[in-house]
Automatic annotation (TrEMBL):
Domain ABC transporter: 3-234
Regions crossing the membrane: none
Alphabetically ordered keywords of this record: ATP-binding, Nucleotide-binding, Transport
Superkingdom of this protein's organism: Bacteria
Pfam families in the cross-refs: ABC_tran, TOBE_2
A GO molecular-function descriptor: ATP binding
The protein's name: ABC transporter ATP-binding protein
Leader sequence segment: none
Length: 351
């Protein structure tokens, strides 16, 4: 069952939180809603669930207009950050909750509860109370509870953000597995963690200040961002001011050849642009194009070195894997990159 938001606007006390949002999630698709704090992600999700009523616009589930339906009539499962398990109920009763509310016959409830707990690897914890479970286990139970009603749409509101880094990575793999095992389930997942969004989602919707900035596959957003905002928010990016001059782009004293399809739509000759260079696509030493600069900072983060280099008064970050001893502060370096690694985006709009 697909999800469609059609021109959905929501405001609170005169502040626009969603500004005419159009978003389509295809049946069986996993879409991540990614954006900074306050960009409207949770509000968008709660609008789909039916907890927020849009001021204007319509919400469709499976092609049916559900804008006027209450949450319990929408047939969606939802998991929130705080687990929201009932503390006085055993795991099995927590998971059975939605089924009972739907009037599912008793004997069927038991088998559906077992099925839902097994999906998240919690089959042997049915008789425990939530307080007898770790945070990760509680979140697995919360996911089981959402899945027990066999929803066609699953809404996830930062379900992993209360977990520590290792558990979060483990649960991210779990969610990926669920998505593979339940190919018909449509998932909308709110997160501000780009790693989670890039790993899990078929498509990522990037929200910024109440508006949808870009909506595309993780690969496309990462390799070919269309805005400086996306470039900086999805992965890290060096954004260098540039100018279009005929069939060249001038950046930090270099001239890069461009063809019309490299340019943001509507770029006029002489227009200001930005060149997006990913820190890990830059190599030390000359390449197709080479910037020259001086190292100002060097830090080691486990598997990679981060080098900050001053190029004509601009700070350029470089990520080096496999270098035992990169040049330290004060060292003169050449930074090489290939033309294909420089993506042109419009000027302004940094995250
Ligand atoms: N019930 C409410 N009443 C008033 N303002 C609200 C309400 N819910 C959300 N807001 C405001 O709407 C804006 C968007 O909130 P929302 O929770 O959708 O953002 P978000 O992108 O999910 O942020 P975060 O990542 O911090 O959860 C925020 O400025 C928030 O303060």
């Amino acid at each position: 069952m697909g999800i469609r938001l059609d021109g959905v606007s929501v405001s609170y006390g005169g502040t626009t939180v969603l500004d005419s949002l159009d978003l389509t999630v295809e049946p069986g698709e996993f879409t991540a809603l990614l954006g900074p704090s306050g960009s409207g992600k949770t509000t968008a999700l709660r609008t789909v669930a039916g907890f927020v009523r849009p001021d204007s616009g319509r919400v469709y589930l499976g092609g049916r207009d559900v804008t006027d339906l209450p949450p319990y009539d929408r047939g969606v499962g939802m998991v929130v950050q705080s687990y929201a398990l009932f503390p006085h109920m055993r795991v099995e009763r927590n998971v059975a909750f939605g089924l009972r509310a739907q009037g599912v016959p008793r004997n069927e409830v038991a088998s559906r509860v077992t099925e839902a707990l097994e999906m998240t690897g919690m089959g042997s914890y049915a008789r425990r109370y939530p307080r007898e479970l770790s945070g990760g286990q509680q979140q697995r139970v919360a996911i089981s509870r959402a899945l027990a009603i066999r929803p066609k749409v699953l809404l996830l509101d930062e379900p992993l953000s209360a977990l520590d880094a290792r558990l979060r990575a483990e649960m991210t793999d779990e969610l990926a597995r669920l998505h593979r095992e339940l190919p018909d389930l449509t998932v909308l997942h709110v997160t501000h963690d780009q790693g989670e969004a890039l790993t899990l989602a078929d498509r990522v919707a990037v929200l910024d200040r109440a508006r949808l900035r870009e909506y595309d596959t993780p690969r496309a957003l990462y390799d070919r961002p269309r805005t400086a905002f996306t470039a900086g928010f999805v992965g890290s990016a060096n954004l260098l001011p540039a100018r279009l001059e005929g069939d060249r782009v001038r950046v930090c004293g270099l001239e890069l050849p461009v063809s019309p399809e490299d340019l943001p739509a509507g770029t006029a000759d002489g227009a200001g642009l930005q060149v997006c260079l990913r820190p890990h696509r830059i190599v030390l030493g000359p390449a197709e194009h080479t910037l020259r600069g001086t190292v100002t900072d060097l830090s080691w983060r486990g598997s990679v070195h981060h080098l900050t280099v001053d190029v004509d008064g601009r700070s350029v970050t470089v990520e080096l894997a496999g270098h035992r001893t990169p040049p330290g502060p004060g060292g003169a370096v050449e930074l090489g990159f290939d033309r294909d690694d420089a993506v042109l985006v419009p000027a302004g709009e940094e995250p």
